[in-house]
Amino acid sequence: MAQVLSTAWATLLLGAAIVAVGYLVKYRQWTTLVVGSAPFDSTDPSPVFASYAGNVTLVAGGFVVCMGVAQSLGLLALVPGWLQGLLFVGAVVLVAPRLGVVATER
Fold first, then answer.
1. Is residue 3 assigned to a domain?
2. Superkingdom of this entry's organism (predicted)?
3. DSSP 43
4. Integer Cα distance of 99 and 85 in angstroms
5. Among 37, 40, 42, 76, which is most exposed with the fewest C-beta within 10 angstroms?
6. Residue 49 CB burial class (10 angstroms; 0-12, 13-18, ≥19)
């Protein structure tokens, strides 16, 4: 399962980096960061893919930032290690698709 980094600063910096990648994918449509190829041409649904991939990345990064804050406050010691991984998976699975639906309805 997911392991928390040894220091709160490292966890916060990693979460901020993941949020930055999510921002670039979702709002700037830098899909090459996640697919590793050239940007889509005009016939492919690039905005929809960028929206979904960006949402998942933003939720994951936000959760890692929250874990860093909880770690710095000492609250993370109260949560068992196996539950930390389940919380991460639950946040990504439950929140990210709903953000994608809202983004495509506009």
1. no
2. Archaea
3. T
4. 21
5. 42
6. middle
